[in-house]
Amino acid sequence: MGRREEPAWAKGTIGLTAARERGDVTRQFQTRLTVTRSMVDRLGLEKELHGHMGCVNCLEWNHDGSVLASASDDLRVILWDPFRYKLLHNIATGHTGNIFSVKFLTPDVIATCAADNTVRARTVYGDAALLECACHCGRVKRLATAPDNPHLIWSAAEDGLILQHDLRMAHRCNSDTANVLVNLLNHMGRYAEAKCVSVNPRRPYQLAVGANDFYVRLYDTRMIKLAKLQASAPPSRQWERQNLRCSRAGHGDPDNNIPQHSVTYYAPGHLSMEPNEHTFPKKATTYVAFSHDGNELLVNLGSEQVYLFDINSAPRPVLVESFIIQQNHSHRDDDKTDQPKNGTTSANGTTSGTNGTTDQLLPDRVREIKEMANDLVNKGNYSTAVDFYNNAIAECPYCAILYSNRAAALMRRAWSGDTYAAIKDCYRAIKLDPTHVKSHFRLAKALMELQRPREASECLKYFKDKFPRHATSHAVFLLQKDITVALDNIERQPDDVRNSNDEDSQSTSLLERELRKTALDYKHRFVGHCNTTTDIKEANFLGPDANYIAAGSDDGSMFIWCRKSGNIIRCLRGDESIVNCIQMHPSMFLLATSGIEAVVRLWSPRPEDGSCEKRVVRDAGAAAHANQQRMRSDPFEAMLLNISFAGGPDRDLHSPACRTT
Question: For FRET with 395, which of 43, 428, 507, 660 sits at 20 to 30 Å CA-CA?
Fold first, then answer.
């Protein structure tokens, strides 16, 4: 037994001293106490920083958190002292378009990118230009840097290119420069746009890229060779330049620059398995962020929710037909011989029967939460019921009936992605208790609601075989009727309609089609915010242990979720219109936010003096419901809603010189 595993070693003065020498105590304090629930509950506005003349589109802390950088539509970068609320330096960047990203390379060097299609790097105080790159022919939306390499910058732009910039090498914008890391045009087609990029802090060779679709691409840059621009022309010939670069759109890289095993795709399962990828409203990945340990990826998906992916053990989508058929048929023969009797105990220790896991094994507190959730469902308050089930599952994650009941509430709430989340819950419940009748039936029903009649038919057949007593019920009869009609409609479709999806896929490369088929599914999701109006909206982990998630919203709010339960635990009014940026201090609970207003706001846990935070949104559930309605509405209607609900009648509609997408 090693010293770290020996119980006596962790006790007493000697053990604590040794732990301090190893740095364990410092790490534990930083991990566990940087952000706690009590701190989140006390989070409030600390200070407003004024100095910009336009929308503040990006924020960035330096390495030790002593300086906060903000960049704006006013084409300037401001460096702030966040503790004295003092403007340290107001930098004229030389950009001629809205600045979308700012990064610290060293304490004295910053990099910026903007809507003028350029990437720039310069010293803070000496005004020396280190990089002026105009290789992009579309708005440059995001920069990424590696924490241990101040010489490299990656830029993502709406021309579909991810460029790599090395400050140690002289740069010239011509076709001889090999700085193209990824060309999305070659794989996604001529309308590909790169929206965001991020570097894994623990494994800097991993680069996550978000585009104008719902797939997040994780590249291993060690396996990718840099390519040259396929064509170059004077900046005044933008149309010709852009169309020349599309000459290989959808035909793949000419030199196989990106091997298939060098990239992994991630996407919410209900989207990656859609028969038609041209979904409405159009999806776009607006932000990607790695966790502190580099094992998880947080994604803010436009017109959808916030998703968390485990990059080491992400599952396949549960809608893969072969998986469902295998899952169902594998038990048919076994169940005839060793199906548990009613009321017997299964291998995982839960009491099983035709009614599923009984309440006797639930702790009293969890049973009370479940009963309150059931009552809320009966009253039609499905959103609050889901929150209650989330809390119950967080305390008792091995009870099938909790997952099954939450699935029923999700299907009735019917927010974006709820039906697929219900399917995942049904599978989880069936794995915990294979004899839970309602889980099997709800699985078939949810598949049908997701317009997957073939899988629904397979599940219903299995349901009838496994539970013959329930096979003749009226609910089963109605579901079977719906499935039969849907299958007949599919068979009657003309061949040209059934093959239209195949024709659409021909605009993408063979590699792209293969990678999309193998896209991995999410681990958790967080709902409540609205992300439709701007394409720079962020979502970030709070604290090194990533127990809390934060994101801005089109309704001007900042939402904070508990990672374990997925529930909203704090909602604060962060902007009169839209909150885009949320960045946390590297070592303490100090948040910086910005949006459409020309203001940077600092948030921290406020004193426990009994005072109320004026910017707290009291009914976060109602705000979440309104946001989900807004996301499903027409984009023009959503824009009108944002105007009408943001700031009231006294709001100056022409104050921010901001360009939204």
Answer: 43
Helix axes 620-631, 635-645, angle to 10 degrees: 150
- The DSSP 8-state label assigned to residue 287 in this structure reads E
Q: Nearest 5°: CA angle at 525, between 627 and 371?
A: 85
Which residues partner with 571 through β-bridges?
Answer: 559
Q: Which domains does the chain have, with CATH numbers?
A: 40-317+519-605+612-645 (2.130.10.10), 346-491 (1.25.40.10)
**What is d(CA 429, CA 424) in angstroms, rounded to the nearest whole number?**
9
Q: Which spans in 6-134 are helix H? A: 12-22, 24-33, 37-41
Closest CA to 250 of 508, 547, 14: 508
Determine the Cα–Cα distance for residues 542 and 583; give it in Å rounded to an integer: 9
Q: Work out the end-to-end distance of the chain between its first and last CA atoms, rounded to an integer number of angstroms.
A: 58
Say if residue 347 is exposed, middle or buried (CB neighbours under 10 Å; 0-12, 13-18, 19+): exposed
Chain centroid to Cα 485, Å, comes to: 36
Residues in contact with 2: Cβ distance below 8 Å, sequence separation at least 6, in sequence order: none
593: Cβ–Cβ under 8 A, 6 or more apart, which residues?
Answer: 59, 552, 558, 574, 575, 579, 581, 582, 583, 600, 601, 603
SS (H, E, C) 118-143: CEEEEECCCCCEEEEECCCCCCEEEE
The whole model's pTM is what? 0.89
Contacts made by residues 604-612, CB under 8 angstroms, sequence distance 24+: 604/43, 604/44, 604/46, 605/38, 605/39, 605/40, 605/42, 605/43, 605/44, 606/42, 606/43, 606/44, 606/46, 607/42, 608/42
Give the three-state DSSP class for 457.
helix
Torsion of CA 163, 169, 172, 174, to 10 degrees: -50
Return d(Cα 159, Cα 163) in angstroms, integer.
11
SS3 (DSSP) at 314: coil
CA-to-CA distance for 595 and 561, rounded, in angstroms?
20
Q: Give just the sign of the alpha carbon dihedral 227, 192, 195, 561.
A: negative
Give the 3-state secondary structure of 569-589.
EEEEECCCCCEEEEEECCCCC
Q: Looking at the DSSP assignment, which residues form a beta bridge with residue 161?
A: 183
Helix-then-strand count for the chain, H and E: 20, 29
pLDDT, averaged in runs of 10, over the chain (661 residues): 42 62 64 86 97 98 97 98 97 97 97 97 91 95 95 97 96 90 95 97 97 97 91 53 75 90 97 70 94 97 97 90 59 49 37 48 93 98 98 96 98 96 95 93 95 92 92 96 94 66 68 95 98 97 94 98 98 98 96 98 93 94 96 67 50 43 44
Nearest to 505 by CA among 159, 184, 188: 188
